[in-house]
Please model this.
Amino acid sequence: ERIMKTWRIIVLLALCGVALSAVDPNKKLLLVPSCEEGRPHFSVGDYNLTQKILEELLRTKKEFLVAVSTSNCLTCCKYEWNLQELRAAMKSNIFLRDVPFTRLDVTQNLWFTKMVDGLERYPSIIYSYDGKMYVYRYYWETTRIIRFIEQVRSPLVEFESLEEVELFLNERKRDSYNNSINTVHVVGMFYDLEEVEEDLKQFQLAAENSRGRAEIYFGLLKNKKEIKRAQKKYGSAWFEDYSLSTIFIQRIPNRYSIVDLSKTSDIISNILYVKALKLVDEITMSTHKYYASAKKPIIIMLLDTVYDEEGFVNNIKLLEDIAFEFEDVVHVVYSDGLYNERKREVLGIYHSQLPALAFYRVFEEPKLVYPPEWPLTVKGIKSFILDYYRFKPEEFK
Model:
C-alpha cells in the first residue's frame, strides 16, 4: 500500500508539475539586456527584491505585487510590455495605485522558489496580502490579472439587498481579447443567525480559503426582509423546500446548484471547495484534490502555456464551450504540455503535437486519447466525449 501511495504521488507530480526554468548556478547565464527597443529586461517596477527587502515588506506592507522573471528567459523579457500595461492599470485603480509593484530575478534568488507554493513557470505574477502569497495561474491578460488581485483582496462580498445579489450574479465581464470571463458565484443567505451560526462560519471559512482562486467569488446576505423577497421571487431555484437559509452556486449564468444544508456543518466548507469549481481550470497539485473527490470523468488538454499565447486563449475558449454544454457530464481541465514528457506518458499521449487531449485516466487502463489526426473542434470533442460514454468505464457505471 505504501509503494502504491508513493507511486501515485510520483505520477501526480509528473502530471501536475510544470518544469521551472532550471537554473544551474555554475552555468554562465545567457543574459538578455534588451528584447525590445525602449523596454529592457526588468525595466518595469518600483524596485527589485532581495530576501532582506522581501522580509521587510512582509512585515510592513499589507499588500504588494511581485513580478517574477529570470535573467536568461527571452519570454520573460518580452512580457515587459504586459507588465507595463498592468502597472498602468493598477495606477489608474483607486484601490491599487499605491500598491508596491516589485520585481524578482529568480536566477539570483533561488531561495524564493522554496518560499512560494504553486510557482511553476516564469514569468509569474504573485500578489502578497496579509503576509500570504498568491500565484496568478491563468493567461497574461491585464483585466483578468486585476480581477485576480481584487479577488485576493476581497473574496467575500456582503449584500444589503436582493438587487445587489442579482447584480452580483448577472455580472458579465470581457477581457481585452473580447472573450467572456467565466466567473463562479457562491451565494449564502442566512436567515436565523443563531440557528445557522455554524453553517455561516463554515461559509465564511470557505470564502477565506478561496482567496487567490481567480474568478471564484462568495456573496453573503443576512437581511431577513431581503431573504424573504428572494425566496418569494426565486423559490426552489435558490432555496430547499421552505427553508429561508440557503447556499447555492452559479457556474453558468442562470443555472444554480443548491448545497444541502442538512449535511453536518463541519463539511459544508469542504463541499463548497468541490462544487465551486471553474468551468475550465488548470490542474495542479493544489487543485487536483478538488477534482479527485468529484465522481465525474475529467477531460484534460495539454497546451503550450508559455510561447503560444494566442493559441492558448483560443483553446481555453474552445474548452469553455465544451464545459458549458457538458457541465453535468465531465470536468474540463488543462495543463502545460511543453515540458515534462512524463506528463504525456501517464495520460497515454505518445505524440508530440500540442494541443493534445485525453481523458484523465492516470491509474486506469485503457488510456483514452483524442486522435491527433482529428482537428480540435467543438464537434470533434463532443464526439470524443460521447464515444467515452458508450465505452462507459467501470468506475463510472
In short: Confidence is low (pLDDT under 50) at residues 2-7, 9-13, 18-31. The longest helix spans residues 309-325. The radius of gyration is 22 Å.
